[in-house]
Amino acid sequence: MAPLDLASLIRDVPDFPKPGIVFKDIMPMLANRDALRQTVDELAAWAEPRRPDIVLGAEARGFITGGALACRLGTGFVAARKPGKLPWRTVSAKYALEYGYDVLELHADAITSGQRVLVHDDVLATGGTAKAKCELVEQLGGVVVGVLFIIALEFLEGRKRLAGYDVHSLITY
Ligand code: AMP
Question: How many Å apart are CA 64 and CA 118, to the nearest integer?
Fold first, then answer.
């Protein structure tokens, strides 16, 4: 079967969650079985040569494709979450938003020293979330072997914030 045009299955939702933001909605792509498989295959093709031991995703859409990607790669999956959601002892990283700050947490035993970690999310915007995930990995002695997205909004210059990391996206705007 010819590859699908994944970008055609991503819906632009203007002014969500606030005025001026064009939200990239991947739900139509996830709901299409061929597109979901192709997305996970394409993510895995980039990730595999980097030999990750584990995939790290953040809530919420990073859990969906991150879990599928980990399964496809034959690795485990760990979840970074908003404060107060994880039940065990955690480490945390603070990151800047457009206005103010937010925090992500990871279980303190989620990653072991020297483990090769692939950081994943659906969308790279300003790069703050991904940078915080890289910091969590490094706090626990892990090695970030790649930072992989489905979509990168290049005009927000998130890659600059992730300078020094091996960054890739399947689709670029
Ligand atoms: P950032 O930390 O600015 O790179 O933002 C990345 C996080 O916000 C990711 O978890 C994305 O899922 C979400 N996000 C930011 N901007 C958008 C957008 N325009 N469409 C969909 N998700 C977005």
Answer: 15
Tens of pLDDT, residue by residue over 30-44, are 999 999 999 999 999
Partners of 23 in the β-ladder:
13
Q: Which pLDDT belongs to residue 39?
A: 98
Q: How far apart are CA 164 and CA 12, in angstroms?
A: 30
Does 26 contact ligand 1 (Cβ within 6 A)? no
Q: Is the pLDDT of residue 99 over 80?
A: no
- Predicted local confidence at residue 30, as pLDDT: 98
Ligand 1 site-directed mutation target among 22, 129, 165, 169, most atoms within 8 Å of CB: 129
Q: Whose CA is nearest to atom 12 of ligand 1?
A: 123
Q: Which residue type does 125 have?
A: A
